[in-house]
Specification:
- By secondary structure, the protein is mainly β.
- The chain folds into two domains: 149 residues, Beta Barrel (M1 Pyruvate Kinase, Domain 3); 94 residues, no CATH class.
- It has three helices and 22 strands.
- Strand 1 and strand 2 form a beta hairpin.
- InterPro entries: MoCF_Sase_C, MOCOS_middle, Pyrv_Knase-like_insert_dom_sf.
């Protein structure tokens, strides 16, 4: 029987993964997932692709704000009330309205990254929508609210790489146990607990997968991207994992059963 073996959220885009045993879920994704991001003065997103040190930040959300923690930095609490300024945010040239104005957080992040940056918050409701699904809200995630990967797929990849790569190299939200390698590529609709999900499209992978999730160091041999490119390249893109949509809301718990309702 397939089960939900792990859940992760990333409250700040490109920050450390936060493992979860339970989580509220909506069409927007896991609660607090990628509600904040680091941006330029113009509102353009900054990620670990260009600033690997972001991977070392722990972002811990509360009901009224966000704790920021990083190596050699004093912990900082950022109240939601500090985000007083409406400003355009830009994620992959998709522009939408978000919030900033948390000056202490701007200074903290600017000192840590050694460049002038701003902390942005989606606000209580995101003004951004999933491309081709205008009814589905999404925060600062690259494309879809959720990313799913099967353990079987990672096992096959590790065999080809020749060493163990952590699932966190791929920054999933939902991890499925007892699945065959790349079985998720064949699913169209699934159910976890009481919530149904629609598979969207394969996730295109980038240099982020070559960064160690614990140290932010780049892999000297460009793995696992190098091995993926040999057998998971389609239409010029290297893919691993599936972007998915939640078709309702509810609560997810680690260990829940996973049922395939239909196949592509």
């Amino acid at each position: 029987m397939m089960t939900l073996s792990a859940m992760y959220r990333y409250p700040l885009k490109s920050c450390r993964a936060q493992p979860l045993t339970t989580s509220l879920l909506s069409e927007r994704g896991l609660q607090f997932d990628r509600e904040w991001m680091v941006a330029t003065a113009e509102g353009k997103y900054i990620t670990g692709r260009t600033e690997p040190r972001l991977l070392l930040i722990s972002a811990e959300p509360t009901s009224d704000g966000l704790w920021l923690k990083a190596p050699n930095c004093v912990d900082l609490f950022v109240p939601l009330g500090n985000f007083t300024e409406s400003h355009i945010a830009d994620v992959w040239e998709n522009e939408f309205l978000a919030r900033r104005g948390a000056l202490a957080a701007d200074a903290w992040l600017s000192a840590y990254l050694e460049q002038q940056v701003h902390l942005m918050w989606t606000g209580p409701e995101s003004h951004r929508r999933v491309k081709h699904h205008p009814e589905i809200p999404v925060g600062f995630a690259d494309t879809y609210p959720l990313l799913l990967i099967g353990e079987g797929s990672l096992r096959e990849l590790n065999h080809r790489v020749g060493r163990e790569m952590s699932m966190l190299h791929f920054r999933p939200n939902l991890v499925i146990a007892n699945s065959e390698p790349f079985a998720e590529d064949t699913w169209q609709r699934i159910r976890i607990g009481d919530v149904e999900f629609q598979l969207g499209k394969p996730c295109e992978r980038c240099i982020m997968t070559t960064l160690d999730p614990d140290t932010a160091a780049k892999s000297p041999d460009s793995e696992p991207l190098r091995s993926l490119a040999k057998f998971r390249k389609t239409a010029g893109a290297v893919v691993f994992g599936q972007n998915i949509l939640a078709l309702g809301s509810g609560e997810l718990r680690r260990g829940m059963s996973v049922e395939v309702l239909s196949y592509v």
